[in-house]
């Protein structure tokens, strides 16, 4: 497994497709890792500046949508001297197949990183078939 | 990307230049634009915020020399074990280092930093010696 991705700041989404967000805020595509391990698939999204309570996860018609609202940074009485990033909304959607046990999807937010565990449904777990040799 | 290309005829050139520069950098070298920083200030102190999701604070190093603030760190790759298979990998790892000039000399002993929800906030009080002084004019 080759992991030499360079560090990058968040990427702003320019065209939002047929449906736009109703919020008039910049929208970002969170950098995401997806991996499979054991009996689960994990989705890991970078969403710095998003508090756990401002995360919204929805699953509708096979589409898992992750939304995170950043708290805007304001410092009363201070003058802004340099702006390297703006606050806005992270959003990204993924197609979830039937192979996922929807009832058991779990999410955790740690240090601005959202981690979602999608456990595979019983029926798609590979089953080892024992072969007995008859003598 | 396309729009940027259309607007700036030198885009391709600058991109090439950047690529050439990258060639001479060490492989997997430090990024100079990471992390993104915001800087605020008033007469008394400065506030620097940086978006660095998922870092262990012990891998972060903040140093101040007069009015230069340096933020260094390393985002380490998570060890998932041998049986993990990546479908997609976009989150970067590696070392970074950024230095910015503060609007005044810092009181190095009183700098504080907090890491919340993947955002680092550094509060830098202004050095007493560099604070503006009002000069009283005495009537002759």
Descriptive keywords:
heterodimer, A: 135 residues, mainly beta, five-stranded mixed sheet, four-stranded antiparallel sheet, 10 strands, B: 140 residues, three-stranded antiparallel sheet, 2 helices, flat
How would you summarize what this structure contains?
The complex is a heterodimer of chains A (135) and B (140). Helix content of chain A is 0%, strand content 45%.
Could you describe the 3D structure shown?
The complex is a heterodimer of chains A (135) and B (140). By secondary structure, chain A is mainly β. Chain A has no helices and ten strands. In chain A, the strands form two sheets. Chain A has a five-stranded mixed beta sheet with strand order 1-2-8-6-5, with no helix packed on it. Chain A has a four-stranded antiparallel beta sheet with strand order 3-4-10-9, with no helix packed on it. Chain B has helices at 2-7, 11-24, and strands at 37-41, 45-51, 60-65, 68-75, 85-89, 94-101, 112-116, 119-125. In chain B, the strands form two sheets. A four-stranded antiparallel beta sheet of chain B has the order 1-2-8-7, with no helix packed on it. Chain B is mainly beta and 140 residues long.
Topology:
The complex is a heterodimer of chains A (135) and B (140).
Chain A: E1 11-12, E2 27-29, E3 32-37, E4 40-46, E5 50-60, E6 63-70, E7 79-83, E8 89-95, E9 106-110, E10 113-119
Chain B: H1 2-7, H2 11-24, E1 37-41, E2 45-51, E3 60-65, E4 68-75, E5 85-89, E6 94-101, E7 112-116, E8 119-125
Antiparallel strand pairs in B: 1-2, 2-8, 3-4, 4-6, 7-8
